[in-house]
């Protein structure tokens, strides 16, 4: 369940319209283990960065469909942005400089609004999964414009929605093809990455307070 320590406090003071989160960290249990995120400076959004939704697509997994991630050892630190996927210069993004490019990039960020909620309100929030553009050539989820904490605050319609922003493989790493890959059904790995994101959301978003039956893009 989302924010287990905060929920324990809420049960003792359920009448309070808001919760004091300044002394707590948002803690969530996922199917790979426990993760910790962080609150925004005004404590209205809980952010979880760089959550692996698949194993690193390296070595024998290069160009192949995404595989399940390894289980976490201890509490996973989800307070910092992860790598972006390998790609060429993208002038429309970050002045043509992609930071932290790596093949180990199948991660996603989750942003949960917390303003004015009590324990019962943390359940069944709708979920928006943002798949970045870039003509399958470039794009990454650690750009400031994809920071869901800012988006939630700026868009009133999203104040009661969870935002998920994944990376997926682009360019040759995501959309290479060959007779061998086609024969094995492994072409278009980037689209298979996106499919894996929605499977992760289905299996885990309930623990963030989201409704897996209310997911849109």
Automatic annotation (TrEMBL):
Keywords: Signal. It comes from the Eukaryota. Residues 26-216 form the Carboxylesterase type B domain. Pfam families: COesterase. Residues 1-15 form the signal peptide. PANTHER family: CARBOXYLESTERASE. This is Carboxylesterase type B domain-containing protein.
């Amino acid at each position: 369940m989302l924010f287990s320590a905060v929920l324990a406090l809420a049960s003792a003071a359920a009448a309070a319209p808001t919760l004091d989160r300044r002394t707590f960290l948002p803690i969530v249990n996922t199917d790979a283990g426990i993760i910790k995120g962080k609150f925004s400076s005004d404590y209205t959004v809980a952010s979880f960065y760089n959550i692996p939704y698949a194993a690193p697509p390296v070595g024998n997994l290069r160009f192949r469909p995404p595989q399940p991630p390894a289980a976490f050892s201890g509490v996973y630190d989800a307070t910092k942005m992860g790598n972006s996927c390998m790609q060429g210069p993208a002038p429309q993004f970050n002045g043509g400089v992609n930071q932290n490019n790596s093949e180990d990039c199948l991660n996603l960020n989750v942003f949960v609004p917390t303003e004015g909620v009590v324990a019962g309100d943390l359940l069944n929030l709708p979920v928006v999964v943002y798949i970045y553009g870039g003509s399958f050539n470039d794009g990454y989820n650690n750009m400031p414009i994809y920071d869901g904490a800012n988006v939630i605050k700026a868009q009133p319609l999203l104040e009661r929605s969870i935002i998920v922003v994944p990376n997926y493989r682009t360019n040759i790493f995501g959309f290479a093809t060959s007779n061998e890959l086609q024969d094995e059904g492994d072409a278009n790995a980037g689209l298979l990455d996106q499919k894996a994101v929605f499977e992760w959301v289905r299996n885990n978003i309930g623990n963030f307070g989201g409704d897996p039956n209310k997911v849109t893009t």
